[in-house]
Amino acid sequence: MAAERRLPDWLKVPMPGGRNYLELREVLKTNALHTVCEEAHCPNIGECWERKTATFMVLGDICTRACTYCAVTTGRPGPVDLQEPARLADAVERMALRYAVITSVDRDDLPDGGAFIFAQCIKQIHERIPGCKVEVLIPDFQGNWDALSAVMDARPETLNHNIETARRVFQRVRHRGDYDLSLELLSRAKRMGGRTVTKSGMMVGLGETWDEIADTMRDLRSVDCDLLTIGQYLRPSDKHVPLARWYTPREFAELKEIGEALGFKSVASGPLVRSSYHADEQHEAAIKLLV
User: Fold this and answer.
1) Contacts of 84 (CB under 8 A, 6+ apart)
2) Taking a C-beta distance cutoff of 8 angstroms, is the pair 195, 224 a contact?
3) 244-252 own/partner pairs: CB under 8 Å, 24+ apart
């Protein structure tokens, strides 16, 4: 049975509109850049943009997949914009970022899934703003390990790939993905990456059980995943998969304790947590433990 539509009090956030938010929106517009903050209707957009942090979305805003939990538009993407990495680096410099997060839509229409653009973004940011760390949140590249290698060779500080949900629920909400493929990607990234931190994230409220959440955490630790984010699934529209239930802040705190006991170097767990929520702080926590 679907959960009630009314949001619990702990999920209500103020409308965005502060000075930094407006300045960042203008920078993004000027550089013709997309953010997942906007496209995926992230509830933290006001808080994060006021902190001058944003998750850039490269390779357009049209996704080739149709995951039933996601608000991003599905369809036929346009051509690859080879100038996008340069514009992105310019925006990062203008915003004086010390930590940049880059993700993309799925581009199954491209032979490398967009890996070349990811690599160029990493390289150009590192070259132009040497002190800026880069986190990439990548798709599965349909198991193209040469594509993954191209991204890892660019040396991102953090390689993120979201498992999204528990094994039993996975195929219902990500019918063109593969749970074991996602785990293998994280495992290979760890072996390729040297000091690159690996990260994954999941939503709760899709019908999974408590034990299945813990099992997913164990699966991620089995491939030595360093960082984890856990957040509440919010149904974008009536066309998307129904919400099964709300998790309470106390339950999120318990999940954080379970994750830390399993050996994650940092676990961000809360109703409003998303993949890049306070990503810089998570990376810093991991680096301290890796030293």
Assistant:
1) 33, 58, 59, 117, 121
2) no
3) 244/1, 244/2, 244/3, 244/205, 244/206, 244/207, 244/208, 245/3, 245/205, 246/3, 246/8, 246/11, 246/205, 246/271, 247/204, 247/205, 247/271, 248/8, 248/10, 249/10
| Structural Rg of the chain based on CA atoms | 18
Cα distances from 51 to residues 21, 41, 44, 78, 90, in angstroms, run 8, 18, 11, 32, 19
Say if domain 11-290 classifies as CATH 3.20.20.70. Answer: yes
CB 117 within 8 A of CB 152: no
Interatomic CA distance for residues 173 and 127, integer angstroms: 39
pTM for the full predicted model? 0.88
What lies within 8 Å, CB to CB, of 141 at 6+ separation is: 112, 113, 115, 147, 148, 185
Q: Which residues contact 7 (CB under 8 A, 6 or more apart)?
A: none
Q: In tens digits, what is the pLDDT along the chain, a chain of 291 residues?
A: 445 467 777 666 565 556 666 666 677 667 767 665 554 556 655 566 566 666 888 998 899 998 888 878 899 999 999 999 999 999 889 888 888 999 999 999 999 999 999 999 999 999 999 989 999 999 999 999 999 999 999 999 999 999 999 999 999 999 889 999 999 999 999 999 888 999 999 999 999 999 999 999 999 999 999 999 999 998 988 899 999 999 999 999 999 999 999 999 999 999 989 887 778 888 888 888 876
CA–CA distance, 139 with 108 (Å, rounded to integer): 9
